[in-house]
Amino acid sequence: MIAQLPQLASLDLSQRGYEVFMGLEMPDFNVIVRNLNGLRKLYLDYVNVSSDATTLSSLTNLSSLMALSLSGCNFFGPLPVSIWNITREICLSNNQFTGKLPSMVDIDISKLSQLTSLDLSGNLLVGEVQSWLFSLPSLKTLILDNNQFSGQLTISEDVASSSSLMNRSSLMTLSLSSCNFSGPLPTWIWNITRDIILSNNWFTGELPSMVDISKLSQLTSLDLLGNLLVREVQSWLFSLPSLKTLFLDNNQFSGQLTISEDVTSSSSLMNRSSLMTLSLSSCNFSGPLPTWIWNITRDIILSNNRFTGELSSMVDISKLSQLTSLDLSGNLLDGEVPSWLFSLPLLDMLNLANNQFSGQLIVIEDVASNNTTLLEYIDLSGNMIQGSFPNSIFELVSLEVLSLSSNNLSGIVDLYMSCKQNNLIELYLSYNGLSLLTKSNSTISSNVAACPTLQSLECSSCNITEFPDFLRTQEDLIDLNLSNNKIHGDIPKWAKTSGKDSLAYLDLSDNFLIGGLDLQWKQLRDHLLVLDLKSNKLHGTLPSTFGKYCSLQTLALNGNQLGGQLLPSLLSCQGLEVLDVENNNFKGTFPYWLGSLPELQVLILHSNNFHGNVGTSNGKHLFSKLRIFDISNNSFNGTLPSSFLRCFKAMMNSTENREELQYLGESYYNDSIILNMKGYYHEFVRILTLIATIDVSNNKLKGEIPEVIGDLVSLRWLNLAHNNFIGRIPPSLASLRELESLDLSSNKLVGQIPKELTSLTSLEFFNVSQNRLVGPIPHGQQFDTFENNSYLGNLGLCGNPLSKKCGDNEAPLQPPPTMVQDGNDSKIKGTFGWAIVGIRYGCGMTIGLVAGYYIVIVRNPVWLLRLARRLKNASNRLF
What we know:
Helices cover 5% and strands 25% of the residues. It has 879 residues and is mainly beta. The strands form eight sheets. It has a 29-stranded parallel sheet, with no helix packed on it. A ten-stranded parallel sheet has the order 39-41-43-45-47-51-53-55-57-58, with no helix packed on it. The protein has a four-stranded parallel sheet with strand order 4-6-8-10, with no helix packed on it. It is built from seven helices and 60 strands. The chain is globular, with a radius of gyration of 33 Å. Among the domains are: 1-180, Leucine-rich repeat, LRR (right-handed beta-alpha superhelix), CATH 3.80.10; 577-878, Leucine-rich repeat, LRR (right-handed beta-alpha superhelix) (Alpha-Beta Horseshoe), CATH 3.80.10. Keywords: Cell membrane, Glycoprotein, Leucine-rich repeat, Membrane, Receptor, Repeat, Signal, Transmembrane, Transmembrane helix. InterPro entries: Leu-rich_rpt, Leu-rich_rpt_4, Leu-rich_rpt_typical-subtyp, LRR_dom_sf, LRR_PRU1-like.
């Protein structure tokens, strides 16, 4: 019917605010518009056309068309030339148009003299942004965000000479975020009069020290977030009279955040400010927190810097009556958390996490009980707040997220007080000195069904003795962490199905749970990503099925009493990245079939009863992503096949030149590694994705050390100790430039220590003791730091640091005859000699280099100073 209205001037079928979009099927787009000769405006935003871009060729028939808006219509293919006949407004955002913007010779720019708005954001356009766009005399809005352009943002000389952009600009809004631009920040952007949005590119250089502020008197928004800008934030930015939002996050500024005196004297910022939103997170700022920030009226975001000092207790709260967000997390702020923060009438987000706040937390009870605050989000985690838990915080009825983890709070908290907060969806109380009451010992009479519907509950190390009863009704749980508590007995049947349609992260580690692994695997199949049951007393075997659609990424079962064999049912979990079953009673031969899991990065079989040969079934792509391989303390025998090691493709990629430190699980689930080093157990609670490790120690492996290990150039730790390896130390190990620890002790190795190993400048631990090595110990680089213990039990070695010198007339001792043995040494379960006896992956979704640690078990204090010195040296090199 629409196609039969040739005089129709405007057609708007846009879908706004609907979840179910209208679809255009029969008749198609061409049939509808081909007869609309009088059409001047066409708006079909979010109407699902799903058509090739050639469909738009029919627009050439609409000679009167001035405005075209086809945002989110699922068009795909090359950007059609016909759109450049539209004279006033062009919006084709959020489609899949490809290709380049046309050059000046490809279109008639004179037809675009009246064009006021062009929006091609959210497509797949490539190449450069053409200079002629900035010469259009009437263009007010240009939006090209989220495309795949490249190169610098420049204007050609011929356009610059004739363009008003360099002097007076009609262009009011320029938005080019996430466009892959690089190079210096263009100076001509300061002629844009209202909105400048260039976030998430690669612009470099400094902000200009001076600009013509008169040209920026109407500027309301400046967003340069996510670039590579350096030096200082210029004071003149805070003197712009109309500026309302300023985003400079994630750049490389430095120094203090100060305002020069001349700007201060004339700036309204010090008294009444037009600036409503200031966001400067992750900018490397340091020094005292500026007092003038309290004149910002709506959003103050200064997280992840190094600001110091206390939050003033003498703030004029009346100026903050419109403040909605305050984020000062990740700084060095100290003192007490002022109580006035909880009385700001419109504040809905308060984030002071990861600072050095101390003292008691006082939530004004009359404010909380009278419901005079709109606080929805409170995060005070990672501080040193002490004293009794503020029960009045449960009176904040609007609260949706409460995080008080990792403080020094004490006292008894009745979990059922949270039932007063009907809107609460996330509760984090871990790592305090709290004791949480659950249903059986609660002092509050509460209807379980009336408790809020939680999505996240993290109460690790809270002295909980039983599963909270209100979990019975929690059907929307995504994250449940009750680790490091005192929960005894079986997992209740109702707990096994809690959140069965939503649960993604389940951590019940370090409790006293018994029973078997009879979770409802088939019900959890679609969404469970992390299952951490380590350090309990679980027994039995793995389930025979994990469901057809298993989504597990991390399975941590270490430190239990599980037995039987690893079953091929694990192959249903094609996204599995971490499998940790150490310290159990699993048996059987090496589960080579695990190598067909395409995402497997961490495999830890330490301290079980596995036996037989190590290797694969000649698969070419097995274990291709593996980066942590630990089969130590088992009874594996035979050789370590070269063909097997060649499968470790991920270990063959050097990480030496990577500049960014990457953490997998950064956004949610923390990773950990446990090292048994010289009699100490250390848990490294945050690790990088750069590390690769192999630990096959304490087995019965024999034969020569494969030369191919030298190809695994990203190895950081290599432990072959306590086996029956024979032959010489392969010089190819010198190719492991990133190697930090090498343990070849307690084998039957012969010959000399290769001089090539002195090139390993990252090597911090070296042990070849209890072998049959001869000749002089190499000198230079790291080898000048190793002590006697690294070489004991090799009667033929000489030279520093041993007392036995290498005299000119002294013939080196010949090694005893080499005997190939199947090996009948008993399995060693404890610590031994001076070796690093293993790397233990705690639980998590990635792998990498240590960023923090703490000692779990200490045996011999004399080594503590030496260990601290090594770790300090390693830290200095890394940072």
